Amino acid sequence: MGHERRARVAAIPFVGAALAVVGIVLLAPFVYTIYRSFLGNGGSGFVGFDNYVAMFRDPALQRSMINTLMWAIGSLILPVGFGLAIAVMTSAMKLGAVARALVVLPYALAGTVVAIVGNVLLSTAGSLNQFLEFVGLTDPESPIQWLLQWPSNVISVIVFAAWQTTGVNVVLYMVGLQTIPRETVEAAALDGADGWRRFVYVILPQLKATTAVVIGLTITNALRAFDLIWVLTAGGPNRSSETLALSMYRQSFLMLDPAVGSAIAVVLTLIVVVCSWLYLRRQIGQES
């Protein structure tokens, strides 16, 4: 038996153990969730796609799907856009490291802490409404209901999520900026490319791989967002700020309807897998 073949045989137990762990921890629960989504409430018989039909007909879950889409779009615009802008603007400025540290700091906070800060600012009697009343922009008798009306409650939570997650995108973009050859930027400057044109035609194309990573991570995290929404609004009022992740929890554990909860889990998983697959396909295609 050759050395290479002996190495392959020796690796079989380790590969088998890894596959067993993945199968038990990840695949088995997901397969059971799919199976459970085709059963009635309480596991009473096969009901086909009834749970999926009930999910798509429920007005609260329809709103939840719209909110999930808003989260995906908002996460693309705010954390990715601000992360890129802050990284570029602070990369060559004095005290840029201090500015970046201040932006990265919220990422170290737990989602519950960020939610508490958001509640202090955005509640009806919160600091933001008090400031707006002080400068005369709102009427004290009718303060803005930031967290009590749709879609302002969803947008408010998205903004606070962006405040927390922009820092990690700044770090990733800083790493990408350091890989750009200094000679390329200097040659563009000698050719007359000013700041904006240098950014659009020289720097931004070379950050394409970094941007793909940032977008992939941001969308995946946005679709799974839970703790910040739960602590800040609990999905309310009247389930108006729920996303699919929150609806899955409420349907399964609070409303004791695991059948529809499983259907929501399957749909949410498919959305995350499809988004990840599209991202990986594009990334691998560019590299090949």
What characterizes the major β-sheet? none
Shape: flat
Mean pLDDT: 84
Helix content: over 70%
Gyration radius from CA atoms, angstroms? 24 Å
Question: Uncertain spans, ≥5 residues at pLDDT below 50?
Answer: none
Question: How does this structure look, described?
Answer:
By secondary structure, the chain is mainly alpha-helical. It is built from 13 helices and no strands. It has helices spanning 3-36, 50-57, 59-90, 96-104, 111-122, 127-134, 152-178, 182-190, 195-206, 208-223, 227-232, 244-254, 258-287. Helix 12 packs antiparallel against helix 13 (258-287). The radius of gyration is 24 Å and the shape is flat.
Features:
single chain, 288 residues, mainly alpha, 13 helices, 74% helix
Short description:
The protein contains 13 helices and no strands.
